[in-house]
Write a structure and sequence with these properties.
- It is a single chain.
- With 659 residues, this protein is α+β, with helices and mostly antiparallel strands.
- The protein has 6 domains: 6-105, Rossmann fold, CATH 3.40.50; 108-132 and 209-341, ATP-grasp fold, B domain (D-amino Acid Aminotransferase, Chain A, domain 1, 2-Layer Sandwich), CATH 3.30.470; 134-203, Dna Ligase, domain 1 (2-Layer Sandwich), CATH 3.30.1490; 349-456, D-amino Acid Aminotransferase, Chain A, domain 1 (2-Layer Sandwich); 465-579, Glycoprotein, Type 4 Pilin, CATH 3.30.700; 589-658, OB fold (Dihydrolipoamide Acetyltransferase, E2P).
- It has 18 helices and 39 strands.
- The strands form 9 sheets. An 8-stranded antiparallel beta sheet has the order 14-13-10-11-12-15-22-20. Strands 24-25-26-27-28-29-30-31 form an 8-stranded antiparallel barrel. A 5-stranded parallel beta sheet has the order 3-2-1-4-5.
- α3 (91-99) runs antiparallel to α4, α6 packs across α7 (179-194) and α12 (404-416) packs antiparallel against α13 (427-435).
- The longest helix has 17 residues, at 251-267.
- The protein is globular.
- The N and C termini lie far apart (73 Å).
- 48% of the residues are buried.
């Protein structure tokens, strides 16, 4: 037994609050680390001690092994939990923690190394009899060798970074004509993201499920699995919604997949929490067949759905196993609990814009209120900042019911009741996915979002015209704060006839308001709405009869910007009257604005140069994503307002193009 009384959590955000909640309940002293960008982040409030590790970007803070170890020494930490993400699967970090005489809450470094390299892991699993997809994982990385291997594998195929993760360095290739370009771009991205350009190739299965098995092992030789999770709802190869059990997995298949997952863990001498990921054919000719993808040597973001079914705390299991204790359940006990546990679904609330390519967002959360009645793991608070330096995930919302339908309805309702104003999120998009008829009838594969939520479908989350009208009218005729009851509804004007130019979710529009303050008619394009009894109930709520329907909207203001939520619909509005004529003209001119907060990594534009429509002008990076800004039309670069390494804000003008 290796007892410890203090724990440093080498991560940030909701991960820290999740781990600290369990650690403190076990009587452990909890130690958080914070970068310069996270000095006042909410996750620092949930721990007993906070250590400053400086830096802003991950490479200068949460990925600095030396700074994390220095923080552990200075704080008197006896153990280190890596969380999930950052260095959680870094064997060098694990070894450094052990060499420093601290307890590592995770698998042995040797097991981590065995699974870190996807090519080596494939080879080892194939040799051990674990099913793997046809493909190439050899050492010859010459372009011609990779091309030949791709042609032998056949199409469609997937190119993957050997050292990859999180969807980086992955390309789907449908035919030979695009193979060379996919190999080159995947290698370049892999080199930039992981410092390792090596690739592997696998046959791609376009209509499969992504099913993973949660495994746990102790230091006494026991290894069990805790059932599966279905992670098929993905965008850019990253999970969005996860559920357990998988509707496609029968009890017999669960046992077959579980036995293989346990064998994988035993093969590498695993200890602690891990996840073995498979592709499952649930509809094709090989229905019920599954293939090894990879093993994540850490706890997963989606572990709460397993906790809900089995009725355990997996972080507590991690800490007890790190201290040398035995697994508390046998395989039969764990399976019995899992199969009698009902159904759980988790949705990842992210700071991103599904209507515009899932672009990451950052800024200030002006109002945060998690939903009641469900589990919500988060590290958010009203007034906190969402940094452009880190992952876009803000929270995970989890519903647990007696059936899949009950959990699905409960989670969709909870998302409707989640308030996160000031930063664009995927909240409404997640609720629409859960309510989609295909999801309801479990017609789900990894291609689900591409099939049902393409660009046009994603834009269905655009603010409805009645909410835009309500917001524009509020800016135009109501005071910024609620009036005393005696004065409510008072106005010096009995007639309204005005134009209100606004920008809604980045799109300029002008509303014409006519009538009286008590009965307004709002018109914009083909949309016409009546607003009766418009009143500000408080600084953050507005009520009215909109088209004879009573509504109560929540809103927050910051200068000429405001954010609105009502009946599950959202709108972000900018009052162009408050930014002057020049600002209003710039909003509609040939000015290319930053679509998100982030860092400029490449500048290809040159002032005075002639460019053609579609030419690459600039590349930005934020929250692990790159975004290219291209010329919208033929013209001349009339002004360049940024350079490489600049940190820019959303909507900041970067380049001006003149026709």
């Amino acid at each position: 037994m290796t007892r410890f009384d203090s724990l440093l959590i080498a991560n940030r955000g909701e991960i820290v609050t999740r781990v600290a909640r369990t650690a403190r309940a076990m009587g452990l002293k909890t130690i958080a680390v914070a970068s310069a960008a996270d000095r006042h982040a909410p996750h620092t409030q949930g721990c007993d001690v906070v250590m400053n590790i400086r830096g802003e970007r991950p490479a200068d803070s949460y990925l600095r092994i030396d700074r994390l170890l220095a923080a552990a020494r200075a704080s008197g930490a006896e153990a280190v939990h890596p969380g999930y993400g950052f260095l959680s699967e870094n064997a060098d970090f694990a070894q450094a923690v052990i060499d420093a005489g601290l307890v590592w809450v995770g698998p042995p470094p040797a097991a981590m190394r065995a699974m870190a390299d996807k090519s080596r892991a494939r080879q080892r699993m194939a040799a051990a009899g674990v099913p793997v997809l046809p493909g190439y994982d050899g050492d010859d990385q010459r372009p011609e060798a990779l091309r030949d291997a791709g042609l032998r594998t056949g199409f469609p195929l997937m190119v993957k970074a050997s050292a990859g993760g999180g969807g980086r360095g992955m390309r789907l290739v449908l035919d030979a004509a695009t193979l060379d370009a996919a190999l080159a771009s995947a290698a370049a991205e892999a080199q930039a993201a992981f410092g390792d350009a090596r690739l592997l190739i696998e046959r791609a299965l376009l209509s499969t499920r992504h099913v993973e098995i949660q495994v746990f092992a102790d230091t006494h030789g026991e290894v069990i699995h805790l059932g599966e999770r279905d992670c098929s709802i993905q965008r850019r190869h990253q999970k969005v919604i996860e559920e357990a059990p998988s509707p496609a997995v029968s009890p017999a298949l669960r046992r077959r997949m579980g036995e293989v997952a346990v064998a994988v863990a035993r093969e590498v001498g695993y200890v602690g929490a891990g996840t073995v990921e498979f592709l499952l054919d649930s509809q094709g000719q090989e229905r019920g067949a599954f293939w090894f993808m990879e093993m994540n040597t850490r706890l997963q973001v989606e572990h709460p759905v397993t906790e809900a079914l089995v009725g355990v705390d997996l972080v507590e299991w991690q800490l007890r196993i790190a201290a040398g204790e035995a697994l508390p359940l046998t395989q039969d006990e764990a399976l019995a609990r899992f199969e009698a546990g009902g159904h759980a679904i988790e949705a990842r609330l992210c700071a991103e814009d599904p209507a515009h390519g899932y672009l990451p967002q950052s800024g200030t959360v002006h109002h945060w209120q998690p939903p009641r009645g469900v589990r919500c793991d988060h590290a958010l608070a009203t007034g906190c900042s969402i940094s452009p330096f880190y992952d876009s995930m803000l929270a995970k919302v989890v519903a647990h019911g007696t059936s899949r339908g009950a959990a699905r309805h409960q989670l969709a309702d909870a998302l409707d009741r989640t308030t996160c104003l000031g930063v664009t999120t995927n909240r409404a998009f997640l609720a629409r996915v859960l309510r989609h008829p295909a999801f309801a009838r479990d017609d789900v594969t990894t291609a689900f979002l591409g099939q049902h939520f393409g660009d046009d479908a994603a834009r269905a989350d655009d603010a409805p015209s009645w909410l835009r009208a309500l917001a524009a009218a509020t800016h135009a005729v109501l005071p910024p704060a609620a009036l005393p009851t005696l004065w409510a509804g008072w106005t010096s004007s009995h007639r309204v006839d005005t134009l209100v130019p606004v920008e809604v979710d980045g799109t300029p529009e002008t509303w014409r308001l006519t009538g009286s303050p008590g009965m307004l008619v709002a018109q914009c394009g083909d949309a016409t709405h009546t607003l009766a009894g418009l009143v500000r109930d408080s600084r953050s709520t507005v009520s009215a009869l909109v088209d004879d329907r009573p509504v109560k909207a929540r809103c927050v203001h910051d200068g000429h910007d405001s954010w609105w939520l009502c009946d599950g619909a959202e709108a972000a509005l900018r009052d162009l009257r408050l930014i002057g004529t020049q600002g209003a003209q710039t909003a509609t001119a040939g000015a290319l604005r930053a679509p998100m907060h982030g860092r400029v990594t490449q500048v290809h534009a040159v002032a005075g140069a002639t460019v053609q429509a579609g030419a690459l002008l600039l590349v930005m990076e934020a929250m692990k994503m790159e975004h290219q800004i291209v010329a919208p039309f033929d013209g001349t670069v009339s002004a360049l307002h940024t350079r490489v390494d600049d940190q820019v804000g959303a909507r900041q003008v970067l380049i001006e193009i003149a026709r």
